[in-house]
Amino acid sequence: MKHFKLSILIILITLISSSCSNSYYNRRTFKYPSPVNTKDKSINLQVKKIYKEGNIFADNIFDGARMNDFFQINDSTYQINIKPENYPINDSPWYSFRIWSDSTREVYLKLNYKNGHHRYTPKRSNDRVVWEIINDSLVDIAADKSYAIIKTKISKNKTWISAEEIINTTDVNLWIDHLKTNGMTSGFNSIGKTKMGRDLPFFRIGIGDSYKKDVIVLLSRQHPPEISGFIAMQSFISELLNKNELSQDFYKKYDIWVFPILNPDGVDLGHWRHNASGVDLNRDWAYYRQNEVNTITKYIVNRAKKGNNKVVLSIDFHSTQNDVYYIFDKSFNTKLHNFVKYWLSSIDRLIYPFKTIHSPEPLSKPYSKVWFYMQFKAESLTYEVGDETDREIIDKKARISAVTMMDLLINGK
Ligand SMILES: [Zn+2]
């Protein structure tokens, strides 16, 4: 009898542990207290054209542009209508267009928002490489933020005016190409296509074989206008690719999987928030109704299963009004033992007096951050960067974050 009981116990333990490992490598769906409907919705496409008003021209014929209309309202003032791809939508009105004239002159440009409020400090560029922030004294914002009027000089040469620096899919791919010659990158690949046929790029950072290594996942651009978060990810990766003693030790145990642009359709369409199916991708990490989220989650689970990897940490780079870390509101029993908490306090100390808000949240919504915990019991973090945070600070903080992450994971706290 005693022997029989022991056998049952062993069978039960085997069943439980095998079901655990099965669920780890089988993508599951999740029910949350605040579910979100992520079924396809229709979107309005902007008309791509060159507008001509007297001897002033403006256009939106480039990837990442957003200008829904352009017309003259008095001698020196021109109105630019900015509309979202659909509604309801997050209040992040992205705008981006080019303007030029027969001769050099000063104009007033009225950015007029539908279903949104002025958020991004306007920037200008003559070459799309060097960007200049348009001084506050030249931007008049309506009290209710429904419009903003910019005073600026235009000339025969096209001037880009944009909510943030333009980093479209072509720019991201050029950056990825540039990383291919680094000895620590590999596996460059498209993991699938979007609704409009754009690639979803992936690459790996690591040394030697991936087999059985612990994995850190980096992702960005679920939300098209979130440029400052993407810039942070670029600096973070640049630091991870420095060949030194720390990184060489780090990659003996860890592998980094990078998904740099998850919403290329939305980015090139100049969307405020959604993909080409009109959906916020960072609300779809439960039922995978959208192709982008379906593809990445399947890819991660399958790749981890093949390599016998444990996914231990994910970092999703975003932007918002301030620098914020979205973290969990309580500690969980993860493989990295609440690593994020120790990591963030180290970063805070090293970047002082610059402050980042820590914003704890429950496991209530289908965000990517929550998925990595639910699927893999991984530590995870939404790394939010302020829209207008000084680009040098973004770079400095991201580099500190990368070095500190490697150091803590190798040498402990
Ligand atoms: Zn975001």
Describe the fold and architecture.
With 413 residues, the protein is of the alpha+beta class. It folds into 2 domains: 50-162, Immunoglobulin-like (Sandwich); 167-411, Zn peptidases (Aminopeptidase, 3-Layer(aba) Sandwich), CATH 3.40.630.10. Helix content is 30%, strand content 27%. It has helices at 2-24, 169-179, 227-240, 245-253, 264-268, 291-307, 339-351, 368-376, 391-411, and strands at residues 50-53, 56-59, 69-72, 77-82, 96-101, 105-113, 123-125, 132-133, 139-141, 147-154, 159-162, 185-193, 199-205, 214-220, 254-259, 310-320, 324-328, 357-361, 379-386. The strands form 3 sheets. An 8-stranded mixed sheet has the order 12-13-15-14-16-19-17-18, with helices on both faces. A hairpin with a 2-residue loop joins strand 1 and strand 2. The model is unreliable at 8-19 (pLDDT under 50). Zinc ion (ZN) is lined by residues 223, 226, 318.
Fill in the keyword field for this structure.
Immunoglobulin-like; 19 strands; binds zinc ion; Aminopeptidase; 413 residues; six-stranded antiparallel β-sheet; eight-stranded mixed β-sheet; alpha+beta; 2 domains
